[in-house]
Design a protein that fits this description.
Elements lengths: L1 H16 L11 E9 H4 L3 H11 L13 E3 L16 E8 L11 H16 L3 H4 L7 E7 L12 H37 L1 H10 L12 H11 L10
Antiparallel strand pairs: 1-3, 1-4, 2-3
Length: 236
Amino acid sequence: MGYLSLVFVLCVFAPCLVTGASKPLPSVYIQIDFKFTWSEFCLLETYFKTKLAELLIKDDGHPIMFSQVYLNNFDENCPASKNNTAEKASLLFYIIKPGGTYADVDEEMTKHAFKALHYLVENKLGRLFGPLFELKINKVQAKGDKAPPKPTGFSEIERTYIAIGIACGVLAIIVLITIAVHFIKKSLRRNRHPSSQRTGEENKGIEIIESPPLNANQAYHVHEEASPSSPTETKF
């Protein structure tokens, strides 16, 4: 009887005791469907966690820790068995609290991770998440009882950044047009008066010195010096 009871317990709980079995999923988690297989993704565990941790910034301005990214079904699929080497990787993961276990899900940070990844994938900006994931993600979904709704448009902050970008672009165009018009006008003025411009440039090297006017006394002395001397009378 005792032997049969032990066999029953092992049959019921064996899947949870096997190394690599996935844990119960929390109230909110993320599913990413990749274009590459499990055998390929198994080599990218560290890379995936590192890039996701860099993407998620806390309120204090620092990224989350590497260990907070919990991959729920990674161990059961990696190393890839012979049965799933050609199967596309569909990863289930979420963010846990610092120093916590798989059960200590950080709901807010997990929702933030979903919004960030969904935005990058929908706008084909996977390279910002990681160059190896560019155009390699099919879909990002939030699941669970507390999963956030799928974003339907730009947030207020995103709209603000877009408006600032458009305003800067318009201002740059106006400045370029103003500079172009200035140089065109300057070129036209040169073409209309080429001779006067050359004459002015030639006269720049000639310096005309004007002597100061003479007063009456100075003029008289000059005239007296310039006149021939009168003959002298010789007396005998």
